[in-house]
Each structure stands twice: as structure tokens, then as C-alpha cells.
Amino acid sequence: MTNRERVIASLNHRQPDRCPYVVEFTQKAKAAMEAAYGDTYLPLVDNAIHKVTAKLGPRAQWLSDTVYQDEWGVQWDRSLDPDIGNVCNRVLPTRDLSGFAPPDPWAPDKFATMAEQIAAGEGKFIRLSIAFTLFERAWSLRGMENLMLDMMEAPAFVDQLLDAICEVNLALIEQAVRFPIDAVHFPDDWGDQRGVMMGPRLWERFLQPRVQRMFDAAKQGGKFVSIHCCGKVQELFPRLIEMGLDLFNPFQPEVMDPFEMKRTCGDRLSFWGGVSTQRLLPFGTPEQVREEARRLMRAVGRDGGYVISPAHQIPGDARPENVMALIEAVNE
Fold first, then answer.
1. H or E element, residue 61
2. 228 exposed, middle or buried (CB, 10 Å; 0-12, 13-18, 19+)?
């Protein structure tokens, strides 16, 4: 089977010839692996899922050596976190959208490189990723604390903001599904390690209707739907399954038991992740990593429904020998 066939079989809850996997690295983790193994480890990684994106708009640029501005005008200080960074400006300081200018999803060159990106993932499962899909985009523009207060004090403003973001995403999906991609991926963290950050009631009020519109657009285009959502959000799984979700990432073992999730909803939802980046990879031993990876592939991967992966991009504190043990185990 090809990697693409493995993932599709898994999403259809059929047993592939081996469990598909994804192993991705933060910049600090790459540096640690290169220090330990040179460039010998990279040829061993054959990720089953390949990411493609729409072209960024003209506002996306580096403003300094450490500050990156995205196409929405949000500025990210990457001096401490070189992969994502911390928001250091406020695009929407007040509850006013009169001067708000989202990026143009219909720009003529928005998908100019899509065919080339897809070709680079030949044989793999191709996913279009829409970064900071909805909630994350809203709080990056408005500020986390402000947005949470807005939900309680100014729900009409939140509706306007989320609708503006959703319309951009729907336009991207409409164009993307014309390409030979396999899935639309929505990265949008709703949880922390205690639960759904805004609570299930506000999630249903503000996010669920827009998420449903985006899921429906992808499904109508004949594509699978996957999300990345950190945190303890399994109370939302029944609703997400009803909404059409196919694949859930990152499947953090610190907040949800992978084996219990497989037992309770593994026949209706597939999972991507499961290998601890908070405990096992930084603090375990290579043998513990190998055994846990094998156990996950045997139990969670039974009858498909699983893409094994670290619960997030591998962090810089992961021990290189543990990462290599994981790579070896998923390739067995």
C-alpha cells in the first residue's frame, strides 16, 4: 500500500498493511537531532500525510529578525518560540470592524503553487491546512482575554468577527476542493488541559455553526475533514462526529486515554497522535518509547482508525535517542 492508501483505509476503518505515521519536528528538535545524528535521521522519516497551503497574502512578511507578520496583520514575536511565536500587536483593539481588512481569498495567485505542492507529496495523503482557522484567528486579532469577555458582553460583535473569518475560509475551501487533495484540515485549539476553554455552551453558540459550515463545504467537495485541537476536548467528540469529522489530532495522552477513546468512539472517529510529547519523549527511555508505540499501533490501530504520531511537533526537550526509537518503531 502507498501512504495515501494507508491513511484512506484507516479513515474508512479498514486495517492497512501497517499503521500510517507522521513525525514532525520543531526547529529546536531538528537542531538536537542534527547534533546527535547529523542528517542520517531524515531519510528514515516517511510521513504518510503531506501538507499544502494557499499562498499567503502581501502582508505576510518579516518585520525584523524576530517578528513575523502574517497575512491578517497579526505580528508574532518568535524570539523565544521560533516556530509560532507570541502575538505582540493588537489588530482589533476595540469592538469595531469598520477598518478591518481580511486577506483576499480570491487573489489570482492564491493557489498558484498548489499543483507543485501536491506533486511534492506524491504517494501521500494530501491535506490542505487553514492555519488558525477560527477561534485562534479571532483571539490573535482581538486578544484572548478580550475575546472571552466579548463572548459574554458583546456577542453580536463576536458573531460579526467570526463570520468575517469564516467567509474567508469558505472561499479558500471552495477553490481548494477543485484540486486533487484528500482532506481539508482545520487547526484551531479550543482546549487546555482542563477542558474546553470557553466551555461547551459558548463553543456551541459561537463556534459550532461556523465549523459546521466549513466541514460541509469540504464534504460537499468530496474531501475528508480533519482538525487539530489541543486540550481536553473529548466532551465535544459526539457533536464533532455528528458534524462529519473524520480525523482528530493531536490526541494528547495527558488529557485523554487513547485506548479508552478507541473503545468508546473508535468505530466512528479516527485519531492522529497519541505519543506523549510532555512525558514520554522528554523523560522516558528508548525502550519505553518503542513499547508504547507498538502498543498504540496494536490496540488503537486495530481495524484502522489511527495515524500514529507524537501529540504535537516534537519539542526541543525531547531526547534524541527517544525520537530515534520512535522513528524505528513506526517503521517496523
1. strand 61-62
2. buried
Separation between Cα atoms, residue 231 and residue 228, nearest integer Å = 10
Q: Per the structure block, which three cell numbers stand in for 83?
A: 516556530
Task: Determine if the pTM surpasses 0.90.
Answer: yes
Number of domains composing the chain:
1
Question: Which domain range does residue 274 map to?
Answer: 3-330
Rounded to whole angstroms, what are the CA distances from 90 to 69, 137, 149, 239, 291?
A: 12, 12, 16, 33, 46
Reported as a pLDDT band with limits 50, 70 and 90, residue 235 is: very high
List strands edge to edge, sheet with 67-69: 61-62, 67-69, 75-77, 86-87
Is there a contact between 78 and 85 (Cβ–Cβ < 8 Å)?
yes
- Over residues 50-72, the mean pLDDT reads 98
Q: What is the pLDDT of residues 38-58, one digit of tens each?
A: 999 999 999 999 999 999 999
- Residues near 246 by Cβ (< 8 Å), separated by ≥ 6? 11, 183, 224, 225, 226, 269, 270
pLDDT of amino acid 330: 98
- 217 and 227 Cβ atoms separated by less than 8 Å: no
- What cell was used for 20? 500510517
Q: What is the CATH number of the domain that holds 265?
A: 3.20.20.210
In terms of phi and psi (left: phi > 0; alpha: psi -120 to 50; beta: otherwise), the region of 321 is: alpha
**Considering only CA atoms, which of 23, 6, 4 is closest in space to residue 328?**
23
> pLDDT tens for residues 115-174?
999 999 999 999 999 999 999 999 999 999 999 999 999 999 999 999 999 999 999 999
